[in-house]
Amino acid sequence: MTAPIRWLQDEIADRMLQKLDIVKLDVKNILVVPDFPGSHLNALTKRFPRAIIHSIAEEGVSQSQLWRKKAFSNLRTLFNANSSGSIAQYLSSGKFDLPDNSVDLVFSDLLLQDLADPKHFLSESWRILREGGLIVFSYLGPDTAKELRSLASAPFRLKNLRSPWDMHDMGDALMAERFSDPVMDMEYLTLDYEKPELLVADIEAMNLGVVVDASSLDPSLLPQKLTLEVVYGHAWALGKHLSKAQNNLAYIDLNQIGRKTR
After folding, report:
1. Nearest alpha carbon to residue 235 among 108, 115, 150, 116
2. Pairwise CA distance, residues 11 & 248, whole Å
3. What is the mean pLDDT of residues 161-167?
4. How many Cα atoms are found within 13 Å in the side-chain-facing hemisphere of 102?
């Protein structure tokens, strides 16, 4: 995602927060990944006024930009915020710069479709979440930009989503990573365009394709709308003290077995 599509990230973040209205959660630490200068910062601070927000900055966004936005949105956010690196650092190391069992909420807006291995992201989220913590995310599903599939011509190079998982695939992945009670839902958003230049700009901003030869691209061949499949999900980190099952067998450490006393 890049700045031209920031309005979409803000809109989806707002919808994610609305879905949290029915969730009761005692939050002391939040990881926002990727974090960007958006309205979600103020909303999270109002929802969880005492929480410390850990930010993994989006590509192209500096920590100073985030700090300025936090100061402008809400001074409490500024003083209850920590830098946990950037998306580039996470992609390089495969690790969040946070200790085990250190956050209560992982909030991820429109990231998973750009990851080669979302299961690794889920595994890292499980690692840093405390017992009873929650992961909340959104991503673009496989039906996104279906109008562009007939445009694979020389001047326009389309990109496949790196992880074209539908919501059933993601639900299965959450269960495989030991998350509990996953809830998945999906909606279609349709973007209408008056100018082909705006369509092309959004396609590139969402990493869906790139124009390699603008002079030979015929605007009349471009669609006037773009469909986005937005997938939402959340799941709980419960039973973290239990051993992970392997080959349909659960291996239980002796230290997990206590003697019943009267």
Report:
1. 108
2. 41
3. 80
4. 14
